[in-house]
From TrEMBL:
One of its GO terms (molecular function) is protein C-terminal S-isoprenylcysteine carboxyl O-methyltransferase activity. Its main location: membrane. GO terms for cellular component: membrane. PANTHER family: BLL3993 PROTEIN (PTHR43847). The lineage of its organism: Bacteria, Bacillati, Bacillota, Bacilli, Bacillales. This is Isoprenylcysteine carboxyl methyltransferase. The keyword Membrane applies. It is found in: Membrane.
């Protein structure tokens, strides 16, 4: 029962985020924003949808239990949710699940973006590991971590190229790492 409530919470959270993303997309496009990387987006949606199905399948089919270290894993998950909200609210109307760039917009460099370029991708990567491990769905954690890394190897270069072509991204982030808060020299 705990597993199903947890999964429903996450799915509802993601659906709410999609509604926010759609609203932000409409606002940005009304201001002249351009969408990039449309070719890979359906693959990303498929991967994230399959992730939830994978967790559901592995936990129910293989009759998995909640991890014996669930308090620590759940605490880490809660921390990722706080960081997720921080990342999304820091971008405000510029946050989206798609690569949508408003030409000549000032790049947001506040919140976690002061420290790393792609905090939300890092958070999602951690969630893709934590959520299945919380319920001992290790195969799902391994498979979807690999798939997520593959998707991000396509998405991040596309996103950075789009931002470089239309904004002051290079000035704002020349000394900020993609995923590490350690400053580059």
């Amino acid at each position: 029962m705990v597993f199903y409530l947890f999964l429903v919470f996450i799915v509802l959270q993601r659906l709410a985020e999609l509604l926010i993303a759609k609203k932000n997309e409409q606002w940005m496009k009304s201001k002249g924003a351009i969408e990039f990387g449309q070719e890979h987006y359906p693959l990303m949606v498929l991967m994230h949808s399959a992730f939830f199905m994978g967790v559901l399948f592995e936990v129910t089919w293989l009759d998995k239990e909640i991890s014996p270290v669930w308090p620590a894993l759940l605490s880490l998950f809660c921390l990722t949710q706080l960081l997720r909200v921080w990342a999304l609210t820091s971008l405000g109307k510029y946050w989206n699940t798609k690569i949508i760039v408003l030409p000549n917009a000032e790049i947001v460099k506040k919140g976690p973006y002061k420290f790393i370029r792609h905090p939300n991708y890092l958070i999602v990567g951690i969630e893709i590991i934590l959520i299945p491990i919380l319920f001992e769905a290790y195969w799902t954690a391994i498979l979807f971590t690999a798939l997520n890394l593959w998707i991000l190897s396509i998405r991040i270069p596309l996103e950075e190229k789009a931002l470089l072509s239309a904004t002051n991204y290079d000035e704002k982030f020349e000394k900020v790492s993609r995923f590490s808060p350690i400053r580059l020299k």
